[in-house]
Amino acid sequence: MEVGQRGISVRALGGSRAGEMRLTRFLRNPKVSAQAIFAEAGRGVCERVRGLHVLAIQDTTSLRDDGSGKSLNAHPVIAACAETGALLGLAHGELLDHAGGLAASRKARPIEDKESRRWLGGAEAGARLLAAGAARVTVISDREGDLYEAFALRPEGVDLLVRANHDRTTLDHGKLFAALADAKETRFTLDLPAAPGRAARTGRFALRFGNVSIKRPDNVPNDLAKGLDLTLVEAREVDPPPGQPAAHWRLLTTHRTADAAAARFIVGLYRKRWLIEELFRILKTRGFDIERVSIEDAPFEVLAAAALVAAVCVLQLVQDRDGKGKRPIGDVFEADEQSALEAVCARLEGKTQRQKNPHPKGSLAYAAWVCARLGGWTGYYGKPGPLVMLRGLHQFRAIQLGWSLQNV
């Protein structure tokens, strides 16, 4: 993908008038679809999950909005290693047209006819990861994914972890948010990263947890269970800085928590949801700027799907730039691209140890170093971010094209 000041450029991607027309025909080919692109990405992820506890993190973001209720939204599910947080790839994706005007009948319609059906797709993707050999799969959603049906219809063996949005009625006729009022409280500290309107800080948190039984809502079909036994974990920041709202998470999960350490583990899993927010920034303002692309209809959907897959690759490179994830190079690059990477690396390395690639060949970190240097990073100041990595990845793709033609 090539990115300019106004987002992805099809003309620049084509390289020439003939190339532009070939790419345009590809985007308009009825045999090419966003769903096929997502399916191929998902098959690649299934090859990387064996033996791992995998987090399937899902969320929705707007790609286009006309301001009158019509929008096109992307709903990806990304897979990450629960132990290391390393991003494994795009496990599932959907593009959804939102027309508006159906809010009045929302409660009367079954989940299969609602846009919220997309939240069940994360659990279905999780089931595929289990079938591919994952040791465990936990599907993570923010408050919008707090659906009774998501818990009631989850595939066997798939765990859910959702930030509670509704103060649900419990089977003992109480309310969910008051269920932990008498629970034992422990304290712990947590580093909160910088976020819009919030500087990075270390916060002190009060932690409570316990078992809850939530009642089936009146608008949910009677063929679903009358109640569900879940675990509620609550982490509330104590004494935040003046003028700053306290961080506060109520987490509903199918995981069982026997002690405070297990409850803190649940909080740690939920915090890895931030990965998908980083992905959306790369897809939008910090990378491909997909919202500003002027292509219409089906070609835009195909281009958006390809950009989402590419954005995942960029985030994988950024994430493993220090080698902490210890991921193999095959997560992003094909086997026949590795010799080109090594040749480029040899040209980029300097004479001093500081100017050498510190990562082993065959690691994703090795490739991230090469892409960062190609993108303009000197190796001396700061760490390469998404835009640098994106530029470098684009430069390498151009080099790889020449390399492959030379070796035909």
Explain what the structure shows:
Strand 5 (71-81) and strand 6 form a beta hairpin. Residues 1-6 have low confidence and may be disordered. It is built from eleven helices and twelve strands. Helix 7 (274-283) crosses helix 8 (297-319). Strands 3, 4, 5, 6, 7, 8, 9, 10, 11 and 12 form a ten-stranded mixed beta sheet that branches. A two-stranded antiparallel sheet has the order 1-2. It has 408 residues and is an alpha+beta fold. It starts with a strand and ends with a helix. The chain is globular. 37% of the residues are buried.
Task: Extract low-pLDDT stretches.
Answer: 1-6
Share of residues in strands:
15-25%
Helix content: 25-40%
Order of helices and strands, N to C? EEHHHEEEEHEHEEEEEHHHHHH
* Main sheet makeup: 10 strands, mixed
Separation, N- and C-terminal Cα atoms:
24 Å
Layout of helices and strands:
Elements: E1 3-4, E2 7-8, H1 10-14, H2 17-28, H3 34-46, E3 53-58, E4 61-65, E5 71-81, E6 87-98, H4 118-131, E7 136-141, H5 148-152, E8 158-163, E9 186-192, E10 201-215, E11 227-238, E12 248-253, H6 260-271, H7 274-283, H8 297-319, H9 338-348, H10 364-374, H11 386-406
Parallel strand pairs: 3-7, 7-8
Antiparallel strand pairs: 1-2, 3-5, 4-5, 5-6, 8-12, 9-10, 10-11, 11-12
Helix pairs in contact: 2-8, 3-8, 7-8, 8-11, 9-10, 10-11
